[in-house]
Recover the amino acids of this structure.
């Protein structure tokens, strides 16, 4: 169950990032065109690009987590015996899950609090840009739960332990 949910949310995050980055690029080029050719700038373009970048960053962090591309300290893990390496990794996943729970709760509180304030140029509630924090963290939580459940059940599927850096980068297109 977690695997399909994680994959679905990851695919949605990938498409959302693509759309946000394309929209951000188009709006930025339009702003340059309007400012220097038409000599009348778009007052909302910088704000839109900023909020799109925030959303793309949090969604991109969840995509990187799903692919196992977040930075880690592999030197210490490599020195541990196989059984302890697995245990340390599962404990680390548990700590990350607890941290993300706090970020999600506080992120929703912050977004809810900021719904009363409007952004200066686009006049949208400021809670919408702040929603990137709990939404991105929620997707990361789903990925971590999927990894933990598959790792405990099948004793496999632990991204950081079973895939080398080269394999992760090839899968990500680097």
């Amino acid at each position: 169950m977690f695997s399909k949910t994680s994959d679905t949310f990851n695919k949605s995050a990938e498409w959302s990032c693509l759309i946000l980055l394309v929209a951000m690029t188009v709006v930025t080029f339009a702003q340059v065109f309007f400012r220097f050719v038409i000599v009348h700038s778009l007052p909302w373009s910088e704000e839109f690009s900023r909020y799109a970048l925030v959303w793309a960053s949090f969604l991109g962090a969840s995509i990187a987590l799903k692919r196992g591309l977040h930075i880690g300290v592999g030197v210490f893990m490599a020195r541990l015996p196989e059984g302890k390496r697995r245990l340390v990794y599962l404990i680390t996943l548990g700590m990350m899950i607890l941290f993300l729970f706090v970020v999600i709760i506080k992120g929703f509180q912050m977004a809810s609090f900021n719904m009363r304030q409007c952004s200066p140029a686009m006049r949208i509630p400021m809670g919408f840009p702040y929603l990137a924090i709990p939404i991105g963290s929620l997707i990361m939580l789903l990925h971590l739960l999927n990894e933990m459940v598959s790792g405990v059940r099948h004793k496999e599927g632990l991204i950081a332990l079973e895939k080398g850096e080269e394999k992760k980068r090839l899968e990500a297109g680097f």
Q: What stands out?
A: The longest helix spans residues 2-38. The chain is about 80% helix and 0% strand. The chain has a mean pLDDT of 87.
